[in-house]
Amino acid sequence: MQAVGGEGMSVAARAAFVALPAAALAALLVLLSAHELPLRLSWPWVPAAGIELAFLVDGLAALMLLMITGIGTAVFVYAGGYLAGHPQQARLYALLTVFMVAMIGCVTADNLFTLFVFWEITSLVSFLLVGFDHEQAASRRSAQQALLVTGTGGLALLAGFILLAQAAGTSSISSLIDIVPQLPASPALVAALLLIFAGAFTKSAQWPFHFWLPNAMAAPTPVSAYLHSATMVKLGVYLLARLDPAFGHWELWEWTLKAVGSLTAAWGMVLALRERDLKRILAWSTVATLGTLVVLVGLRGEGATIAVGALLLAHALYKAPLFFVAGNVDHGTGTRVIDRLGNLRHAMPWTAAAALLAGASMAGMPMSFGYIAKDAILAAKEAGEAALFARAAHTVFGAIAVAVAAVAAIRVFWRHPGANETPPAHEGGPALVLPPLVLALLGIVLGVFPFVVQDLIAEASVAMTPGAEAVALALALEAGPALVSVAVTLAVGLTVFAFWDPLHRALEWLGARLAPLAMAAHYERALRAIPRLAALVTRALQHGALPGYVGLMVAVVVLALVVVGVSITAGWAWPAASLPSLGLLAGALLVAAGALLALPQRDRLVLLLAAGLTGYGSALVFLFAGAPDVALTQFVVESVFVVVAASVLMKLRLRGYGAGLVDDGPRAWRALLALAAGVGAAAWLLLSAATPFDAALSDFFGTRSVPEAHGRNVVNVILVDFRALDTLGEISVVMLSLLAAWPLLQALARQRDWGARRAAPAREEPR
């Protein structure tokens, strides 16, 4: 992406934005040096639901915070140079700031619903950042895809959080870690776990949701370096690591993470070989690393949690600089296609140096923190079952990581492009060069002096395994078997790098034939199917026939009665037998007579009059049941309705619309539906009458109506005082409906007047 000419931000404005993550980083370092972890803060948020605005800073949160603020500072500096002169640079800075705050909220939240709020903010801001260049169709499509995938996963995550909080009786994450291991594996907990998997896997681009991340490379490079390598895509991994102490003893948890993570890592590495765009190559290698992190979360043992912490940090320190390098190459040459790039070290020496340092860490070379992390990963995998298979898989994945690092660090800067001619290139300014250099150099410094961060990684390991003692961690450069593993991985990786182009052509040929089976193709088909499904449902349900609408509503009510009745009823119990009063019996007979008389009628006017008997019968039942005010209301409403409706029908008949007043539709299914509704309602009434009456609610209103609402009519007091807002809402709906219908009524009146004028004979003009 080239800088766009125009009025950009001033240096002072850019410095003010850069100061935000820098100040947050400084405050975090002071906090960590002055206080022991963990730190907790909480405020009541929704006390009635037991939801708190609770925050926790432990070792895992502190590690994530260092990446969010540290990488964030570098990204903010880099964005100032990358988008220098861009008229929308301030918008990018504002969105990045909101995103940084949301990320801080996510990794420090100690309540499921607090975490979810910040989680969704990151998805929404990510949508705006990926679609930053919204004038381009590719950016809009990529932003839409990222939002649909991660947003759908977010909805699943919310459902999982609700089920988990209900099953455990709390939404506090700290409490859940203690409570869930003691709970049996109930269906609610299993459903909650599967929904949480969906949310975490979509966020961290795990298979089968992996396809959205490389497409998000349509975003500007600062966004890719911050969101899609160092922070947001690791939120899913963070959530899994946070909940690992609660569910880690479940085989479903362990094997799901191992299977999905392994498949994602393998597929990401293979798809990296298919790409020619440098940013997309790095994006697919990020998908592979995220899969490796998920596998490590699923592994048992203290070594696995150490490997998770080390890889989280190492990946941020080499992948963000490599994305910066890709951005500098695009900024300096106008292309990211590796076939057109080569020998750029002469024109871009500082970027080439950053690429070498970051590539060495990604390849796991000694004297880099990537070497420390990969040594920890190998130790964690060998500690589990199938150590030989784990070593082989580690070698293969590491070899392809070496090949990807060589493409970014060697092919682009040190290898001649062959027959292709490299475009003119130039090095960027300090804002483009310093961030990748500093981060890549930090990855080397921590590789030489790993003791600087070993206590933090140990604290993160303890946070992922609560109850364990502090980990006596001594990260160090070790010779022996570790170097042998590096040598084998390096040899295989350089072989893959040497045959990158033939492998690419073979995978491209195979991928073209398997493209219809790819998850991205399924996503596109699902997207196209949505409007077709909506049209099909609309045609089936919005057919314009009122009897059909009424029948559907009644059917849904009957189904709900059956489902709820079966789920909550242990057995049938008849109520105590008692003879009804003559008034109640007369009202019931009148209701039944009206219903039976209405069944055979085909003339809708007669049908209306017959059905009106059911309303008057209901008023009689209310009267003898001790509710005269309700009976009076029912009588008045029924009378007004019958009179008004009959008048309208008569008017329509006089105007020649009589054919529409006769119902010739099928009646058998309506009779069956009415019978089912009647039987269901009767069964519920019998069940309710057989259940001991709970007078708590009626006693509450009866004792408080006079002293608190100054009224003796309890029904009126409930309507006007206790549920006044609800009543006001109902009145408001009626009023707004009238206001909405008023223009339609006026249009009908104007149409009637216009029709009358056309029908009137024309007057003769005076001679």
Q: Could you characterize what this model shows?
A:
With 767 residues, the chain is mostly helical. The protein folds into 5 domains: 1-152 and 212-241, no CATH class; 270-517, no CATH class; 518-562; 580-657; 712-751. It contains 29 helices and 2 strands. The protein has a two-stranded antiparallel ribbon. The model is unreliable at 1-6 (pLDDT under 50). Keywords: Antiport, Cell membrane, Ion transport, Membrane, Transmembrane, Transmembrane helix, Transport. One of its GO terms (cellular component) is plasma membrane.
List the defining traits of the structure above.
767 residues; mainly alpha; 5 domains; two-stranded antiparallel ribbon; 29 helices; elongated; disordered N terminus; membrane; Proton_antipo_N; transmembrane helix; antiporter activity; ND/Mrp_TM
Determine the number of helices (DSSP H or I, runs of at least 4 residues): 29
Poorly predicted runs are: 1-6
Give me the Rg, rounded: 35 Å
**Percent in strands:** under 5%
Major sheet description: 2 strands, antiparallel
Mean pLDDT: 83
Shape: elongated
Give the beta-strand count: 2
Structural class: mainly alpha
Distance between the termini: 81 Å
Helix content: over 70%
Please write out the topology.
Blueprint: H1 11-34, E1 39-46, E2 51-57, H2 59-82, H3 89-108, H4 112-130, H5 137-168, H6 173-179, H7 187-203, H8 212-215, H9 221-230, H10 235-247, H11 251-272, H12 278-298, H13 302-333, H14 349-362, H15 369-383, H16 387-414, H17 430-448, H18 451-464, H19 481-498, H20 500-514, H21 519-541, H22 546-568, H23 582-598, H24 604-624, H25 628-654, H26 668-690, H27 696-709, H28 714-722, H29 724-759
Antiparallel strand pairs: 1-2
Organism: Tepidimonas alkaliphilus
Subcellular location: Cell membrane; Membrane
Domain MrpA C-terminal/MbhE: 671-747
